[in-house]
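Re: Re: token formats

Sure, here are both.
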Amino acid sequence: MRMAPEEDSGNSKANHHKTPPPPATQQQQQVKKRRPSWSDGQLWLNKGDAQQALRNVVNKLRLQSLSNSTTPPSEPDSDIQTLDDPDPNRQCSDPDCTSLLSDALLLNVLSRLPESQHISNSLVCKRWCKLSGKLVQSIKLLDWEFLESGRLVFRFPNLIDIDILRACVKLGRNSGILISHRLVSVHLDSSSANGGFVRREDILDWEVVDGGVKILVEGCANLRRMVLINTSEGSLKCVADKCKTLQELELHCCDDFSLRGISGCKNLQILKLVGSLDGFYSSMVSDIGLTILAQGCRRLLKLELVGCEGSYDGIKAIGQCCFMLEELTLYDHRMDDGWLSALSYCSNLKTLKLQSCKNMDSSPGPDEHLGSCPSLEELHLQRCQLRDKQGLRALFLVCVSARELVIEDCWGLDNNAFASASILRGLRVLSLHGCSLLTTEGLDSVIESWRELQRLRVVSCKNIKDSEITPALAMLFSTLKELKWRPDSQSLLSSGLEGTGIRQKGGRSFRWK
């Protein structure tokens, strides 16, 4: 057997032992692999806040080691500072470790926690309470004194969304009865029996509301959405001057001339104007207010008018001035006859919604004077009375270019009224919900004229029967991209039992034991 060289005999005894490199090579490797240590007082972090926080940890560990030694501690360095105790020589029995973190770092940590924990986090200490308040961006005010005292803007300086409606209603909150509306919810008491649920004297005076709004906008200048009630022109001007980033505004119980104050809101894109609300409060918004609104808010994208009065002139002014308007919603409108023809001036309107309207237009005028909305894509009718066939036909003529028609829980829509929808030749989506007077025959006669129909939804229409479906209608169903067919409970039961053999002659049946 050939012997290994003499210089390799050390390696044959222990494989894990290696001959140390020359001193120069070992020194080079130590220099190459050496990293900054805690004792050097140097940190390799680049962020200033993190570096300061870790330096505080190191300094505090030094203080604790010095206090535990037998010799008296030396004078601490001048740069050793702790945030939880101004005197670094005094030792706390239970120190707060989070005090070593800067406000920016601690705020970053708290922002990553779920929103459900913000309230419990704010109860830890005053510092956490202040930092947790900076994370709140949306709030519904219930206590008006909280705003007047200045505590609201101090506690929540980064608000971008606030609703002060509930705080401005002076009804007792100890009542066990709460009435909720789509737009407002209030508690009821014995004084609400006469004159509606919310009387005029139950709302704070406009002088008081203006004072609170000025405190709010001066402390929270980054607001993007506000819900206000009973505000004056001066208060709205203050909002326009201070809140340059305001994009959405909801006004309740305001008159015509107070709307002049929002002309300075250059970036306002969404506006909801609530005039009269049955059972709650009533205010006058007429063509004067609509014209002022149109001239002052030319960059509106969405406009919702609730309980507003007006006529052809007001809607025409909105269409001519707000040329960027894409969505218009009318809730319980009080428009005069002939207003429908003014919709043709809304050249860029894409969505039209009519909700809880008692009529469309009693006297729309000749068809040649109605015009149409060339860019309209969607027409929504929700909880409206459609007994006026002339007004409904005029509405379909104005919306002749619509691609989607949605009718939900509307009264009076029978076969004759629905027949006027055949004007919508380019309709692609039809959704019917709660149309109890419409029959299968009326639906079949209109759908035949829609060659581009792609989606059909029929829900809770009890007079539309499966047994009355014609072969032509069944053939149309097979070509649709989407079909939701639940006109009544019987149809729903049939579709659920399909393929099971139940309810067929000679099939299975249930037996009670």
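Second one below.
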Amino acid sequence: MENRDELVESVVGVVFSTNRHECPDPIKAVVQGSIPKWLQGTLLRNGPGIHSIGEMSYNHWFDGLSLLHSFTFKNGDVYYRSKFLRSDTYNCNMEANRIVVSEFGTMAYPDPCKNIFSKAFTYLSHVVPEFTDNCLINIIKFGDDYYASSETNFIRKIDPQSLDTLEKVDYLKYVTVNIATSHPHYDSEGNTFNMGTAIGDKGKTKYLIFKVPPTAANKDKKSPLKNAEILCSIPAHHLLSPSYYHSFGMTENYIIVIEQPLRLDIVKMATAYFRGVNWASCISFHNDEKTWFHIIDKKTKKPVAEKFYSDALVFYHHVNAYEEDGHIVFDIIAYKDNSLYEMFYMANLRKDLTQDTAVTSIPTYQRFVVPLQLDKKTEVGVNLVKISTAATAMKDKNGEICCHPEILCEGIELPRINYDYNGKKYRYVYASHVEWRPIPTKIVKFDIVTKEMLVWTDEMCWPAEPLFVPHPDAKEEDDGIILSSIVSSDPKKSSYLLILDAKTFKEVGRASVNADVHLDLHGIFIPDKN
């Protein structure tokens, strides 16, 4: 589109701020090209679908009400459906015809559906506000069950086929976490690993790693979380100001927790409602502090003794992590500051799109390497990394290990890999490409070895996170296809599901749907068991 103002209206109006309509009954997509016959199952995605209720609008794009949608593949055909998550938040807002439940970037006054605060009790955890159950970020699998999730202590069980909303689940009934990630890890045995923060638990604030066993090991069929096990707890450096995090890393034998200096001020959060500010304003970045790397041994369930750190950074997504010759290699998408969240305030979206300046902080694909076999006699300033990489790790005068990353590339976000290679040495990452702010117009395949980047783009089309599905007879890491839900802002073109050959990055097919497809955040592919 030649006119910048028209493009801004297209992106902000059509893609970000327009309320979507659900499509509860499956509709058959129009397929161009072909759908691989072996592709049988459902792509299930989650993201914001309602941004205004009555005369009120959410302040931030990430606050929108959850809209689940799915693409089901059956014998070369594709079927689409979508449903709003019928959370308590959704029901209260719709009944009142206005926003009455607070979200992270939008504080509601008053909030009649729930009491914002508990009464003052002995422990700090009792003054943490009760959060929304608008679970709009991702889909988590526990046992054979699927849950819509965000970053609070609430998740909502859903039916992955009908997209119906089922029971509300509170993590606090099973593990003491007030906040938890929407990016768990899964091992080959069917265990689900996740991370959360216990705020003020017995006077201490801790990061907890917990494991939920598969259904086969679950004696209570009512909830897989009944058998959740705390693997490890890590004391936060700051009791009243724990680190914010969105994901963590896992190898075969270790879990990587990054305690970044992007911190939640719990006292400010507990008083935000009375002070007339949102919870997001209670997060601050401390660029003069260290970023700590906690390496937890899964067998001993304890952190390794050495203290590893890096310069201040902000990150949301781990890419992958693996072990190599006595080292742990972990890759993340990092920023120099916390401007990413600020960019997605609705008031900032239009301003950001009309400015010609670059994003304040470009996402950078960084590789850190942590040596596990340390010689205590090693002198200060000597590089302890013994594998082939530009990343370094050096002992400082305090005996702590300062790590500096290798920069693999810039400008990519929402990274996904072939998950069969999670925790293993890998070569390829699939991601959204950020070239012109604030949202991606391209998806890419990046080769870590050659640094080659293959690109897909389509005019006036806005791609969601690319997801890799392996071929059932895969011989190589990139044997499979890439799926991405594409929102079209061109009134002459329908939105569609894109299918790319993961090896060549050439289009295999697309499935266009006559439905109100929204730009989503994260999701999973559920293979057909038949």
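The chain has one domain: 4-527. Residues 35 and 76 are 5 Å apart (CA to CA).
- S.
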